[in-house]
Amino acid sequence: MLPLLFMLLMLVIGGWLDTRLNWQQADFPTQPHR
Amino acid sequence: MGAGHFALAAGLKRWAPRLPLWVLIFSSYLLDVIFIVLFAAGIESLAQIDPANPGYGGAIIHAYYTHSLVGALLIAAAAGLLASRWWGRGGGWIVTGLVFSHWLLDLVVHRPDMPILPDNLGNLPLLGLGLWQVPAASAFVELALVLSGSILYYRSAARLPTPTGMTPAVQRQRVLTASVTVAVLLLLILISDVMGL
Question: Which residues of A touch B (CB under 8 A)?
């Protein structure tokens, strides 16, 4: 059961922390070698 | 193999920065999400090889719809089509690939229990390379995926420009918080899975 709990935490908390980063402004992968 | 699928999703941010992490994670695990629903409905099932010692990779999984080659391709195509409504054609293709990547990773670790056609029509040979039979090797592969996915996620996040009105220090803190959380949770998924907790 613990792996499922951690997976749910990853989905919710990891997902939320990820939305706080400005990925919409990412200039990759169009400039991979910068 | 939960951690391996999730790590692949996190690492993919490098090539799909505009797809939210939760979408990538959910896509990477969609086949098992549907499996859980069908398991609860009694349509798919799993059996421990040694019921007295259930542990990491110690199960034969009778997922003859979700984990059949054709079934997985159909689910991946449907998910990609749905995702393309929100994230465009490129996002749809990435979701399609990520959903199907679950089947490919499972192919490596599963014992031969994955059919080609849904419901194992035609009784064709079951697929699976069986890495789970060597738990240490399987865990090592998953650990490599976890480390690679975590590093790729951090390196991608660290390249993001600082938004207007935010100090670089705050941006760095947010990148570190997200990256460390992702890495720690991936490791916790792997450790708890390997220890059979």
Answer: 1-4, 6-7, 9-15, 17-29, 34
